[in-house]
Design goal:
The protein is α+β, with helices and mostly antiparallel strands and about 800 residues long. It has 17 helices and 38 strands. The chain starts with a strand and ends in a 5-residue tail after the last helix.
Length: about 800
């Protein structure tokens, strides 16, 4: 579970929950929705649906559900997108979502019911109820339930066992027991530190006190009385049949199905629900704990849960007991957010106006979008209630390709660096924790940030090519490679953890950075060669990383915030060649490929005019590995180490070489024109999991047309290849053009090559930083002529 730092300031923690939205009509201020006028309600619904459909399309949200609520219950709810991966079943208000940290509110409610029954005391030491709980406490003083439930206990964010990353599904007892190997990060009651571990301990207290599973207690004492029949802390077969397909995504463009393992920190984030059920929960909130003719919680207890205590400076703390409390447009707002594998949530209520909304999307860390839609729904309802004009929903559009490429580069101030990267006409800046996409939609030609995480930061490039971000000014940095990373860090840089959740340790302009939970980039403070500290903000403030190295100085694992991440074997070391085990012997594949026939094409094509690229400029260097055994398959595919391109593509490549020469750089070509039969050999030799890195011979390849080139950079003075994030033909995520790892110097050279190639009409392939297609590729037929026949002038 992750605590989002939306707009770099606001921290709204949580896990995913279903959306419940309520429609309001012009009635007495604060009176609720019971006398709503139908036309006013439809106007609100129409505006809201337009905003949601825009976001579902713009952010590629697999599914989103929403409901509007007043004190009487659900007023309106709906689903958008599709419930299943095949997109055959539309999402509805009954679709099931994983609601993440909204789970915490239900765990806290269970405790407060026991407080009302005099079975628990919020301010007694928690060890009075859970004697086995004994984390290290160098500060002294007791840990209480109140502190745990308001994130003021100073406990680590995640337990060593059963943490957010851990897919082994340990018991609650094992998860809590592992906390005894940790120490408090802060003195209790002195600082807010969001802790999934803390609420997990709270769930264990409920179990210990009642001698029953916390999930059963919540089901009997909260879910059933609320009528939440489609909700459970356990994913039953019936709920799973209605569970929305949830998608993960990464900065480098990957998407994959979200994992479904049960969290060891289940009381903090394992609840499943539907928006219709969440509407019932919100209605209870708006009724201050009342349910029909009964009471789930006394009003005075509910008030205690939603009244945060003051900080030393008199400002209210961020959390009361479970609930986050703040304001929206001057209205007191209570609720909780959520982010759990593949799901994002926002549940909000305005008690003074008797309005509530819940929104959930089936896309990982799309909390910026979900929260924005929740706030828009509330503002629509407030306007309808007040009889004022309904607010507009601000949208953005893609920026022109030329503008995106003009923005690309590095900008800085005295203490901050803001890189802007571009790919295929899209541009992103990375000013802090999150990367942010830049789109058109600002006033007077300004750009706005708009992506699943962020929205609304105004950005402009002025006449001096300075980047203006809100009120900050960042000067354009010289277009030159950053210094090399310190040698002592080379053994630490790389990936750690699991496929479903990877910790990436990278270097960025002299700082080691932890990119954790896919999106959170934290610059680290070096304490010694193997120990680093997280910054004093974000998910893991106050916690450290400790690397363990082997005899060669390479890290074997890292314990980050008390969670052990094993080193991932990924790709190859610098200068080494990636290898696969061919599915069949290459000689047998060659025989079959030579007698096979390329796909038949119809249309008006240009005559082939293949040019050997080194004849245009002798400083274009070749490393044609397919003429050797030094390639991914370990076999010879070409009889001669040559590189050919169609003449327009070859001339464009020559212009790239001339563009790079003043910088002391030259092009190192690995492959260009490739006969079709070789493409078929590659495809047939490659295991299924690596098929993205080879072309399907059924469609042919742009290499076959003489309009694709695989290449890198080399140093003209030394003749040595430039180190890139990944080696040529490495079948791993490191080969993606926007892979965020490695060093800043490696990434700079990779991006610099891409910019130079794009300027002359080439486009990079989405899976390989080294593969570029020339813009005229559609005008040429698939070719199957061998190199030796080309040299004889035989075009067959």
């Amino acid at each position: 579970m992750r605590k989002l730092l939306l707009a770099w300031q606001r921290q709204r923690q949580g896990m995913a929950i279903l959306a419940v939205l309520t429609i309001v009509a012009p009635i007495a201020r604060g009176a609720g929705l019971t006398e709503s006028a139908e036309q006013g309600k439809q106007d609100v619904i129409k505006r809201l649906e337009e905003a949601i459909r825009y976001e579902v399309a713009a952010k590629s949200l697999p599914a989103l559900s929403i409901a509007l609520v007043d004190r009487s219950g659900e007023v309106w709810s709906e689903g958008f997108g599709f419930q299943d991966a095949a997109q055959n079943v539309p999402a509805t208000a009954d679709t099931i979502y994983r609601v993440g940290s909204v789970s915490k509110l239900f765990t806290d409610l269970a405790v407060m019911q026991l407080v009302e029954q005099k079975k628990l005391d919020l301010d007694q030491p928690v060890q009075d109820y859970l004697p086995s709980f004994a984390p290290g406490n160098p500060f002294g003083g007791p840990i209480t339930l109140r502190q745990l439930m308001s994130h003021r206990a100073g406990l680590v964010r995640e337990p060593p066992v059963g943490n957010y990353f851990d897919p082994t599904e340990p018991t609650l007892a094992a998860t809590v027991a592992s906390l005894n190997a940790t120490s408090l990060v802060y003195k209790p009651a002195t600082r807010t530190k969001y802790s999934n571990a803390g609420i997990t301990v709270v769930g264990a207290v409920v179990e210990q006190q009642l001698n029953t599973a916390y999930s059963r207690r919540i089901d009997e004492a909260i879910l059933r009385p609320l009528g939440m029949t489609s909700s459970s802390f356990v994913l039953t077969p019936a709920l799973e049949a209605r569970l929305a397909y949830a998608s993960m995504w990464t900065y480098d463009g990957r998407r994959f199905a979200a994992p479904k393992f049960a969290l060891g920190i289940a009381p903090a984030g394992n609840l499943y629900s539907s928006v219709r059920d969440l509407a019932k929960f919100l209605a209870c909130i708006l009724q201050e704990g009342r349910v029909g003719d009964g009471v789930l919680l006394r009003p005075e207890t509910f008030k205690q849960m939603t009244s945060p205590r003051p900080e030393i400076d008199g400002k209210p703390q961020e959390f009361a007991i479970g609930f986050q409390v703040d304001e929206l447009d001057g209205q007191r707002r209570i609720g909780h957010g959520g982010a759990v594998y593949g799901f994002s949530t926002e549940v909000e209520a305005l008690p003074g106006r008797h309005l509530g909304v819940a929104v959930v999307a089936a896309l990982d860390v799309s909390n910026g979008t979900v929260e924005r839609l929740a706030e828009y729904a509330l503002r629509l309802m407030l306007a309808q209630q007040d009889g004022t004009a309904l607010p507009e929903y601000r949208t953005t559009t893609p920026i022109p390709v030329s503008r995106a490429r003009e923005l690309a580069g590095e900008y800085g101030s005295d203490d901050r660096l803001v890189p802007v990267i571009e790919l295929n006409g899209r541009a992103w800046m990375h000013p802090g924790v999150f990367r942010q996409e830049l789109r058109a939609g600002g006033i007077d030609g300004a750009l706005l940030t708009d992506d699943p995480i962020n929205f609304g930061t105004k950005v402009r490039l002025d006449e001096q090519r300075r980047l203006l971000v809100k009120d900050e000014v960042f000067d354009r940095r010289p277009d030159e490679p950053p210094p090399a990373a310190p040698d002592r860090w080379h053994g630490l840089i790389g990936e750690y953890g699991w496929d479903h959740n990877t910790l990436n340790i990278l270097e960025n302009h002299g700082r080691l950075v932890a990119l954790i939970e896919w999106f959170y980039a934290y610059p680290l403070k070096e304490l010694d060669d193997n120990e680093f500290a997280f910054p004093d903000y974000g998910l893991y403030h106050g916690e450290k990383l400790k690397f363990t190295r082997d005899a060669a100085g390479n890290a074997t694992h890292v314990v980050a915030a008390d969670v052990r991440f094993e080193r991932r074997e990924l790709g190859t070391k610098d200068g080494e060649t990636f290898h696969i085990v061919p599915v069949e012997p290459v000689d047998a594949l060659r025989k079959a490929a030579l007698v096979a026939t390329p796909p038949v094409e119809t249309g008006d094509f240009r005559e082939s005019d293949l040019v050997e690229v080194v004849t245009l400029d002798a400083t274009i260097k070749l490393d044609v590995r397919y003429a050797t055994t030094n390639n991914f398959a370990g076999a010879v595919f070409y009889k001669q180490p040559r590189a050919f391109l169609q003449r327009p593509a070859a001339e464009a490549l020559l212009r790239v070489q001339r563009r790079l020469r003043p910088q002391g750089l030259g092009l190192l070509v690995y492959d260009a024109y490739r006969p079709w039969y070789v493409t078929k050999m590659f495809w047939d030799a490659t295991p299924q999991e690596f098929k993205n890195f080879v072309a399907n011979p059924a469609q042919g390849s742009r290499h076959n047309r003489g309009c694709a080139v695989d290449l890198s950079l080399y140093n003209l003075a030394t003749g040595k290849p430039i180190s890139m994030v990944a080696g040529y033909d490495e079948f791993s995520p490191r080969s993606l053009p926007l892979y965020p790892g490695g060093t800043s110097r490696q990434r700079w050279y990779r991006d610099h090559l891409r910019q130079a190639m794009q300027a002359e009409g080439f486009a990079v392939y989405e899976f390989e930083w080294w593969h570029f297609d020339y813009q005229d590729w559609k005008h040429y037929r698939i070719g199957n002529t061998k190199f030796e026949d080309l040299m004889r002038g035989d075009p067959r």
